[in-house]
Amino acid sequence: MLHDDQNSLFTIAANFIQYTSRPVFLTGRAGTGKTTFLKYIQANTHKQVAVIAPTGVAAINAGGATIHSFFQLPFTPYIPESKGFQQTAGIDRHHLLGRIKMNGDRRKVLQQLELLIIDEISMVRCDVLDAIDVVLRHFRNRYSEPFGGVQLLFIGDMFQLPPVVQEDEWRILAPHYRSPFFFDSHVLMNEEPVHIELNKIYRQNEQQFIDLLNKVRNNEMDEEGFHLLNSRFNADFQPSKDAGYITLTTHNYKADAINADQLNKLSSAVVNYKAVITGEFYEKSYPADELLQLKEGAQVMMIKNDPEKKYFNGKIGVVTRLETESVFVQCKDDPAAIELRKEKWENIRYTLNASTQRVEEEVIGSFEQFPLRLAWAITIHKSQGLTFEKAIIDAGAAFASGQVYVALSRCTTLGGIVLKSRITGNGMRNDERIVQFSRQKEAAAQLNYALNESKRVYQSSVLTSVFDIDAIFKAVSVFEKFVTEEIKYFNEEVLTWLATLQERLDHIAGVLDKFKPQLQALLNEPYIPEQHEALQGRLMAASKYFAEQLQVADRYLAGSVAVTDSKQKAMVYNLLLHDVHVALSQAVHTTKGLEEGFNAASFAMHRKGFRVTQLRVNAYAVANNKTQQKTETPHPALFQQLRLLRDKIVSQKNVPVYLVASGDTLHELSTYLPQTLEELAQITGFGKAKIESYGQQFIELINAYAAERNLTSCIHEKPVVKKEKKETKPAGEKTDTKLESYKLYKAGKSIAEIAQERNLAAGTIETHLAYYIEQGELSVNELVSTEKIVLIEPVVRNMENNASAPVKQQLGDQVTYGEIKFVIASLNHLKNKEKQQL
């Protein structure tokens, strides 16, 4: 994607994002190219990037996710100081992190993230930014760095839509924040962003109109400005049918009424176009009408930019022909009608590609509809980002503070504006805190100086990270912990093998500890690293040595000696060993990027080219056909014969090991020597079905072994496991079964574990927990992810009763019955709470 290379501020901003780690606030008046900049960075950055926005529609338009779904944030105000034992509203850091259910994939995305773009930042509340900071520091394990070391790009115009803050929310936040705006968050007090304002206006080119917009924006309106603005007042103005005017109004119902009235006046037939919605796509995120009703002669507006530039977002025209797959729209000054077909908007989530270790977008839902909207009227809120040549502005007496600028700046010329009501000073003053903040933008000369210094700091940070192998030791630590805790399932040799791996890595770490001070001394010199000749030579030598050493350690993994006949333990072992391989091979690849010296752009491209190779190691005993000795059995030779028989049956039947006989079962067989099928039934793991299928083969083998050595059965020596009798309660005393489930859940057990322990169905346990959600004793966020909640809630609200089946039928496999049950209980709790307050 190309950008205007004559726009120096655009280029400076792009360089800050590409070549530094400084947070950036990119702003600018309407029509200065903020959206273009966002798309440019998305298409061209070498960094691991995610885009988020405060609302569903903004997220879809930006090609990202919502803030709350990406970070799993609750909607409760966040309090930046600990509440201790105070029972005040809002949540502090401890309770915030306790509420977030971050699965492994989401953690990995956060850990790999390098650049986070927040679009429409004017709508983001201060405490939300502090909550994002807390989550990133925690899940990236980088507690001393703002946003956990992630670079932030804030995009938006503070003179447009402000954050929505209810009175009760501000009462909670006011003791902790100077204002609800993002720039007054605590994290930005310690890490002020580079403030860049794009000033090349692409939407307007009339200097008189541009000067007027600047006066409105900066609270500098004078008598001359008001006179010029109100010269466009005409309360009785009625546009001709084909004039192409759109009315900007303050409320949805006003815009809907105007559109419906004008549509009804047309004598042509209505044609309905139903959107095609697939996967997950939340109703509040719909970028167009789900049911689009059009007539020939209807005035419409395009709501997308055409790649071929036949139309743009906000272009107005008249429908001339309606077909099943096409809508034809004639726009003024265009020689022919434009043919429009359905466009697709995608709902995405961010995932980590296991092969490349890159953050990628995964499409989880789509919305297909004609990119059109009836355009006799639109709300000022929905007009944000659009461009109009002719507009009737119906401000009214209730016009919100600061919204005059939003409405006026949609238009390309002053002559294209008609005011239905006069504009006075009372209705158009912008928040002075925003005006003061906007004056903090840096001049181009200051930005260039800051850019050079930030490049030096960023390059130093990148080079320091190349020689940081903490990720390898962390992966090894998790792997080692698993092996040592589960060693009874593995052969003892694996511990010796693991110790050797640790020794090799400790040696590398020891050499690195001597190298790092030398590297830091060179980085402290007043040169940009890529221009530092002495540093370049040292980096090339270090790259060669450490890449070789790390590669040797990585190759060592392929010689894993671990063996287990537990398929489950083998699976975990294989996965954790693969994690070590990923960390090592990524370090090898990164270090090799310095073999020919360091250039920031080239190194970034090299790092982006990482691919994980497959580690061909399998600890599963049958799969790799290795021998596992069980030295504690009195008859190891019999144990081996039994194992070979077990493996033969597994191979013939093509079934998992545990479905025939586990290692523990073989151990019992070789210890107690059962010699009849009746005695075999006393061996752990041998039930009626197994005895019928395989029992005789095992008995014949044991009997042959016993006969050769004159051995008899020892089954009488096998300890008898006594079943504990359940305590009986006195007559008339009943157990509160819901409370029992609730206690077990609060003790940290999962629903499946509770169901197994209580010998009840999982659905029954879900019903018990739903009861406590409805009572307000449990939070629905503990049991259901935010994405699922926002998916289920609107469907439940549209149902006449609390039945789960219709909701499941509508949402399908996206949700479970239990999740529906929990959300219904949460909504019932809110309804009961509202009734009590009436």
TrEMBL record:
Q: Which SMART domains match?
A: AAA, HRDC
Q: What processes in GO biological process is this protein linked to? A: DNA repair; telomere maintenance
User: What CDD domains has UniProt attached to this entry?
Assistant: SF1_C_RecD (cd18809)
Protein name per UniProt = Helix-turn-helix domain-containing protein
Q: Taxonomically, what lineage is the organism? A: Bacteria, Pseudomonadati, Bacteroidota, Chitinophagia, Chitinophagales
Query: Please, which domain of life does this record's source organism belong to?
Result: Bacteria
Residue stretches making up the HRDC domain: 632-712
- Gene Ontology molecular function: DNA helicase activity; nucleic acid binding; nucleotide binding
